[in-house]
Amino acid sequence: MEFAALVALSLLLGVLVILVAFAVGRRKEELNEEIKQAEEFSAEGTAVKGPASKKQRQEKHRNRKEKGSQHTFTHQLLASTLKSHSGNVTCVDFSSNGKYLASCADDRTVRIWSTKDFLEREHKCLRANVELDHAILVRFSPDSRAFIIWLANGDAIRVFKMIKKEDGTFSFKAATEDFPQKHKAPILNIGIAETGKFIMSASTDTTILIWDLKGEILSSINTNQIVNSYAAISPCGRFVGSCGFTPDVKVWEVCFGKTGDFKEVTRAFELKGHSAGVHAFAFSNDSHRMVTVSKDGTWKLWKTDVEYKKQQDPYLLKTVPCASSDGTRVALSPDGRVVAISDGSNVAMYNTANGQLEEELHGVHSGEITDLRFDINGRFLVCSGDRAIRVFHNAPGYRAAISDMQDMLKKAQNEGMKQRLQQQIKEAQSALDTVLAGSVSKRT
């Protein structure tokens, strides 16, 4: 019995050992299989994920590179490109003495450039920082010793004084207080009258405000144009004009007494003739001419040197087809000979005497042109957009001046006058030839 029991126990133990060995072996195989699957899964993940992540890194790097790169542009008339801003440039303005160009951007700075450096390789500028905000508009004071800006977030005007140092450079000091917030809609434009008597601000509703230099409101104008698209002060400092949804431009006179005290704002005249809303307008330097550009696909030139107080209306001088769109800008050269019109990132330049399209500049900026204006001498046309400011030679202006002098030469009867005109024609032609022969390789 004992022997039989021992044999049964031995067999039982043997079976248990076999079962355990089998279970261990089976589990080992399962573990090996799991490890193998894990390795295969890991390899597959690396094969798929690895190159994708590398591609993503390359794409991120490329996006950063593309974001940091500057839009390039070349043209025979391009005099220079001003590039110091690290943000999008929203506005430019020339000082009345012609020495400086101010620009503002969303990089929280205002830059002051010297116009005498426009034709140099290097374009140095002075920087004024806009604390805790950035400027979307900038305008010089008449004495060129201060400028005002419109604060993007503060929705108000801030005044900066330009303090000249012994070395000839400037430091900039902001006024202790900004103008009060009065507009209820986004701002369109600001300006300082050349007389130094008032400041204007206009918003996209139907509001134009007239301020004194200390930030007190002198008058509020309701343009009754449903919405405003543009407003500006005339170069002579007497008028304020506005345009918008309606097919006209309205012009008011801001009146002051003999002692310099503000009197009133009165309606001066209107420019009527477009068949659709007006995008923008511009004055000649003497305010005797105006140009308007409309949604109806035309620009018009007007004679505004009229006796409006005797109910005399401005004369329509010319209507010319053109491309335009929302955001279109227009500039009239100081002598009234050239009209420049922006359409998106393009600029067209026309001769006002015959309405001929003189120059087409395509893709000047990577995006929409934000500002467009001639310098006070009419030598250059400047436009802003993206992070650059383009400076162009006003070749159409040279051509128009030469044509006018040639006409005068034909009519001249005095020999001295003929010689002066011949000399002026020669100098103008030489300047134009120099511009057209200039190399563009250094101006990208």
Descriptive account of the structure:
The chain has 444 residues and is an alpha+beta fold. It folds into two domains: 76-393, YVTN repeat-like/Quinoprotein amine dehydrogenase (Methylamine Dehydrogenase, Chain H, 7 Propeller), CATH 2.130.10; 401-435. 24% of the residues lie in helices and 38% in strands. It contains three helices and 28 strands. Helix 2 (395-411) runs antiparallel to helix 3 (415-437). It is globular. 36% of the residues are buried. Residues 26-67 and 439-444 have low confidence and may be disordered.
Features:
disordered C terminus; alpha+beta; Methylamine Dehydrogenase, Chain H; 444 residues; globular; single chain; 24% helix; four-stranded antiparallel β-sheet
Sheet/helix structural class: alpha+beta
Tally of structural domains: 2
The major sheet is characterized as:
4 strands, antiparallel
Count helical runs.
3
CATH homology superfamily name of the largest domain: YVTN repeat-like/Quinoprotein amine dehydrogenase
Percentage of residues in strands: 35-45%
What's the CATH first level of the largest domain? Mainly Beta
Helix content: 10-25%
Shape: globular
Oligomer: single chain
For the termini, the CA-CA separation is 111 Å
Reading side by side through the largest sheet, how are the strands ordered? 1-28-27-26
Radius of gyration: 35 Å
CATH third-tier fold name of the largest domain: Methylamine Dehydrogenase, Chain H
| Uncertain residue segments | 26-67, 439-444
How many beta-strand elements?
28
Query: Which architecture of the largest domain does the CATH hierarchy give at level 2?
Result: 7 Propeller
